[in-house]
Sequence to fold (512 residues):
Amino acid sequence: MSFETRRPLALIILDGWGVSPQHDGNAIALAHTPYYDEICERYPSTTLAASGVPVGLSADAPGNAEVGHRTIGAGRTIRTDGARIENSVKTGELLKNDVLLKAFGRAAGIGSAVHFVGLLSDGGVHSTQETLFALLRMAKRSGVSQAFVHGILDGRDVQPRTADIYVDALEIKMADIGLGKIASLCGRFYAMDSRENWERTARAFTMLVHGEGERSFDAITAIRASFLRGISDEFIAPIVIEKSMDEPMATVKNGDLVVFFNHKSEGMRQLVRSIAVPDASVAKPKVEAVCLTEYDPSFALPVAFAEQVESNMLTSVFEYCGFRNYRITETARSLHVSSYLNGSENQAGTFESRVVLPVSGLENLDSEPESQSFKIADSVLRTLGSDESGLFVVNFPASDLVSESGNLEKTIESVQFVDTCLGGIIEKIREVNGVAVITSSHPGCEQMNLQPKFAGAPRGTTNPVPFHFIDPQNSETGLADGGSLADVAPTILGILGLKIPTEMTGRDLRDL
Fold:
């Protein structure tokens, strides 16, 4: 294919589809997938690393949808925010962070309280304990005399009913550092909602600002009392720790400094907006705030670890060349095929069209394991019929979303639905003389027997993901082994006959 004779090209991303020789717990192998089986038999394929260092994570860390889409779009390894922060803690660079130093210095200078808000967990998905400990040490060195932790309780990225262990470890560490007290606790169901359930966020807001919630003199006792009532970590309602009868340990007040220490933006946007972003229609304290990473550029808040600006991403090449490109998925992955794939640029380009199929809620996946897969496929087929030179980024998240429940049977059903949709798209691609590349953003569905027995937990698999090249005109093309998701963008540019930017360290996987 050359620039002048472009045919339709589809990049199809099947979230959660990994490769494993094991059949036990392998939803993909156990499913009836005649269309995918035909693709495997007829067209060139290889496997790609989608976890750990090749995609910018810590060694042996499992991949995920966000990291996978970023790497696919970048054509290079981009170190994730979590990995960058983890390294800064280990090397001591965090203690030199200018944004944090200035904020702590101002708080110490005027004697204001510092509030740390974030997830108490070592799951590594949204936060780490070591980051909080390092921030407390930094505040102590800066002369801060009043520091309070408002802990969000996990139970999803780690085993449920372990919140008391993390709180106990925090209290021991604060005693060792000589700074910090727990002021409030709240399950992530309330404090980290990311689906516009503002009534949940309001519960966390009133806890932080007005001291509303169950009162207790001891954090661990309060957590264990919730356990006895059958309430696990993430669903624990706001708990306010008292320093004396009817007097909260601390609430967020005018002039205070609030440091949000989650490194992942998802789950923090609503809470940060409610507390730290000025809003004339809502009464809230005027605080100074620092976000560990960029939760939302529109907040215009200081960020300790700013986004790394990457140039010459796959989609920016599309834009430069004037290629009409379509991003098609459902709500749960709308950011993944837009801002993450674009390199954190959320604004659609001139030649970019987005089709996001809305879903009523993830709670319906057990009864509707196909989610919006058929509507996604229908949208692709319609657009393929009307644009003979379009570029398509098609994301099917259903199997991955269903697998998070740990329900193998429903995941198998979802895989089969996705297979049917995939078959329809590939048939149309062949009909219009197009080209397709099929891969996955991360593994997971192929090794569900390793999933923890609690919903939402990372599956921990570091298996590779598939890569299939479908071009009926070049069905004998070989594909190189030993690649990673960083090789997807260079391969697509090679198919289009375009020069691969020097910033892309990945390679064209085709054996030309």
